[in-house]
Structure formats: C-alpha cells, structure tokens
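Data availability (excerpt). The following record was deposited with the supplementary files.
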Amino acid sequence: MIIPHGFPQFPLSFEYETEVHESLDGEHSIFFNIFRKRGVVPKRALLIIHGQGEHGGRYQHFAHYLGDDYDLIVAPDLRGHGRSEGIRGHVERFDEYVDDALLAWTWLQKQVPVSCKLDWFGHSMGGLVSLCTFLYRNDLNADHLIISSPLIGLKVEVPVAKVLAAKLISKVWGSLQMDTGLDATKVSRDENVVEAYLKDRLNHSIATPKFFFSMKSAMEGLIASDLRIHEKTRVLFQLAGEDEIVDTSSAKDFFERFKHEDKKMIVYPGLYHEIFNETVKENVFEDLKGWLHQK
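Predicted structure:
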C-alpha cells in the first residue's frame, strides 16, 4: 500500500490483515483489507466501499484519524478492482458491486458482538453502490451511513457520439476495456496524493461498455427511487465543493429529496473529489467525528 508523503503512518495500535472470500455468485475471489485494533473487543466497526478505479487499501489512514472511534475497519476491493478477481473496470450488472458490499457487511457482522455499533462508508462510485444497497435492502441495520462525494451524476457528460458507439460495441463486446480519461490531478489538491495515485499499480482508469451502461442505469434508478432507510440510521453526506469528477449538484438535489429525519449534509468549498485525501483532510475527519458523537 502506497502512503502519500505527509500522510500518517499506519498506527501501531492497529494491525493490518487480509482475507479472500468467494463472491456471492461464486465467480470471483474478493480481497478484504482489514484494519483491526490490537487486543480489543470491537465496540464500533466500519465498512468502507471505495470508488471506481481505486481500492480499499487507499483507506488505511482512516485507522489513524478514526482510531479512537473504530476498533475494526474492513475495506474490500470490489470485483475488477485492487487485488480482487474480475476484469478491470467491468461488471455485467451494477448489482454485482452491491453483492460484494453485502458480502463484506455480512462478514463484519459476524466479527463483532451484538452490542457493537456498525457503520457504513461509501465514496464516489462506492457511494452509489452504498445507496443502491440500502435501496434494495431497507432492512440493513447500520447505525451510521456516511456518503462521500457520491456518484449520482457525472460532472462532464459523455458525448452522444461516444455513447452511441459504446451501445453498438456493448452488443458484441461488452467487456472491451476503454480508458476513462480520468485526470488524476482532479482527485485532490494535494500533489502528494496525486503522485501516489499515479504510482499505485492497483489503481486503474478503465471502464467497459457494460460497466458504463449498468452504472448509468443505477444512477437513474436511484434518482427515480423513493429511498427509505431504517429510521434509526443516521445519514451524513460530505460533498466536495469543486468536484470535477462527479456532479455535486446532483448529490445535493438527491439529498434534499431524500425523506429521512436524521440526515445532514456538509459541502466543502474549494475541495476536490477525494475530500478525505485533501490538504485539509483533518478538518473533514473532525466533522465526521463530531457528527458521530452527536446525540
């Protein structure tokens, strides 16, 4: 795992573990990054769902910044990402990512006592995966749902000609790997984060036609839905004010329409897409921690 210059080292109070589990459809091995506090029975645990093209190992600094709040953190690599099996940037159905998230959630539930608080975090495409999971499974018993810069709309629309070409290609070669053209400099204003992102061989900038259309369908389905989350689940949206990758206004609109009593939204003016990897990430983590401790 590559740690950007200036980031904290992995805390000594935690140990890093890995496990590999068979996917729910039995077609792939899913890699789990596990950050576990040494010698402690977990009182609060966290699931992290990463974004498109990255992997769960990029979230190791969460153990440093949230180590006082969480005793166990699991960050799986979704299929086709990181060290999990699967074609890079490809799924036949977006629900396959939902299945991978539920696989990790079920694993987490089995690792902790019944009294343990269970929280869920999703970033970017992981935010879309997370919201879709709660849409399909309104019985999920998360105590807190944290959504970071969710992919509910793209910042730059794909040209019509490219969409039409992708439709034609998807009918005969839906798993064709194509470069997304992601500009890594738009991930964070921190040059060290950008450098580490580009050096990390577990990252990729690939998407296939089947992935693109399944993602588009998932976004449209979520926007058109009447999302209902368990009333006991507290919900926090943390959004980048200068996001050039996903459309922050789409996330704001969704949040306003989302019918839930205990919800909060924080927008960070000037910050790029990965707000938890920004130059002022400490402030973003402090906002999250403060919200966690509100009654």
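Summary of structural features: The domain at 14-292 is CATH 3.40.50.1820 (Rossmann fold).
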